[in-house]
Amino acid sequence: MTPVNLKSLAKELNMSIATVSRALRDSHEVSEATKQRVRALAAARHYEPNAYASSLRRNISKTIGVVIPKVANHFFALAINGIEEAARQAGYHVLIYLTHDDYEREVSIVQHLKGGRVDGLLMSVASSTQDFAHLRGLKEANIPIVFFDRVCAEINTAKVTTNDYESGYQATEHLIRAGCRHIAHLLISNNLSIGQFRQQGYLDALMAHGHAPDPGLILHGVMDNEQNVALIRELLLRRPDIDGIFASVERLAISTYHVCKELGRRIPEDIKVIGFSNLEAAALLDPPLSTITQPAYDIGREAAKILLRAVEKKKAVLPGQSVVLESALFARRSTAG
Amino acid sequence: MTPVNLKSLAKELNMSIATVSRALRDSHEVSEATKQRVRALAAARHYEPNAYASSLRRNISKTIGVVIPKVANHFFALAINGIEEAARQAGYHVLIYLTHDDYEREVSIVQHLKGGRVDGLLMSVASSTQDFAHLRGLKEANIPIVFFDRVCAEINTAKVTTNDYESGYQATEHLIRAGCRHIAHLLISNNLSIGQFRQQGYLDALMAHGHAPDPGLILHGVMDNEQNVALIRELLLRRPDIDGIFASVERLAISTYHVCKELGRRIPEDIKVIGFSNLEAAALLDPPLSTITQPAYDIGREAAKILLRAVEKKKAVLPGQSVVLESALFARRSTAG
DNA sequence: TTTATTTACGTAAACGTTTGCAGCAAATCG
DNA sequence: CGATTTGCTGCAAACGTTTACGTAAATAAA
Lengths: 337, 337
Hints:
The structure is a homodimer.
Chain A: H1 6-13, H2 17-24, H3 32-44, H4 51-58, E1 63-68, H5 74-89, E2 93-98, H6 103-113, E3 120-123, H7 133-140, E4 145-148, E5 159-162, H8 164-177, E6 183-187, H9 193-208, E7 218-220, H10 225-238, E8 244-247, H11 250-263, E9 272-276, E10 290-293, H12 296-312, E11 323-325, E12 328-330
Parallel strand pairs in A: 1-2, 1-3, 3-4, 4-5, 5-11, 6-7, 6-8, 8-9, 9-10
Antiparallel strand pairs in A: 10-12
Chain A binds a DNA duplex through α2 and α4.
């Protein structure tokens, strides 16, 4: 079975490779008659251009990379959905890389991508990442990058986020209005700007309503869910006065449910719970969970669109293109007064 | 800023491109001293080989494609997780494509991939796919393919599935033992072999326990969840005798919960429900949902491993390499007697 | 010494595509 | 009618890497 490429098509058509190539790219310097012949044979032979030869020659891969902590998470799954949609429409391919929130892995992935495998990068940084040297290098490699959700403030590029400060404020206020007096905040590693914003919203809402912030009510989660359950259990036992919980990430809200069930704390009678979550089944939980839900699909799509515009123009992405989308608060029974 | 490639390194080191290339690939025909010099400079200049040039020359892309219906679904998200892990360990990259269960899109994606962008393909076919010509073409393009979960029986290659027949049987039997007399089966498009197996398990379990199969109790879901809710509502109203529901896909179980809540049917008192699901929060639903849970991560990882072995040997994948993994049944309150 | 063999490197040809340049007709213009 | 333009096509050089082949020197075998 002989390979079907420009050369084989050219030979069969008795013309040069150049003409075949131009005909297929619909160049204006090829006669309509020739184009017809070329296209007919290409279709008959099921010709598919070699993506790598083209990429090498044009120095364009028509591919974007997506680097995220995990995929088994509704937020990221939905974001990928949006990213894939935008990429597909623009004729781009999507490479997926998972960091599992591991800094070393993130560095290794980014390093590899400097080889020109992707034209641009979408990224949600790992929670353990503190040093951003590996990301700076991308600028030099001329690979534009757009951060989404878990952004990196130190890098000068576009970012797509949600109104995290306001959401943190609203969630906390929602609990206060529901009658909570001692509200705990569960979050993960606080070196993420996103966590800081939510935390600040939480603190400001407390202050605004005359509640004194209490460091003992702030719990930092870890990667492992088992450990989180233990941490939350310990917190609830140590501070029996806690009557409200604001979870900055879905996993911690779920773990809270498990602990409450285990300790016999009733939701919402004893403790009210609200959490960031994209869980479709939130309304079917026992009790239905009040959530702040981020527009994950839109975040992914918007980030991809911004990136693709930059890629097409071969320009770096500008911070000015940053976008802030709004999350929605769904009050359900877990915070019923 | 000059590009850093083999040529620039060679010039700076006063040696030929070939030697630099060989040194970096740790060839035995380069002296240790030279290797040291080359490696040192490569590191200093942050050299990253151009993936496309290498791919073009070696006719190997070190990339696999994953074609799935959707990603916002715990099963597929977990599968991707397993796939990415296996790929990363083997030094492969992962391209993601979503069909959204659309046949046209699936064909278009597969067609594109014949251009050599990927060394192999992992696939879960779209529920609307009936014709498999586009997949046969892959054989000719010498691209091995491994199906997982939603396999295509007509194509002669390796498949990674779960024991769907047994699971369907067990789920049905579980409902029967819990006292159900009129058990409905909710599934999607039945041209998928996977749906047929589960359905057969359901039917055989009914027969084995002296229940007569009733076509009026089998409901075929569609893409849209709103429509599914309507269909299920109609079914429950039309057949008030239904006291058990076996949902072949997670979405249909969730929709069932919504309908029951709406119609005031109590689970499990009035209707017992069991469904295929990888939802982590299944135990936290109201009531906790009994599930058949597939080892999604392992399915993805196993499929990727089989594919990568074939890719490395540049051989087609053999049907004999097929693997069947076992799902687990978790009995929870939704089927309590 | 001569003749193999090994070691270490360079030369150059691929891989398939794109594209600047040139050529060469036919058409248009002065 | 000669000069210039226009429309179409081919030639050949890239893109960066890998690798078969050649070669010169150094070592080993004779």
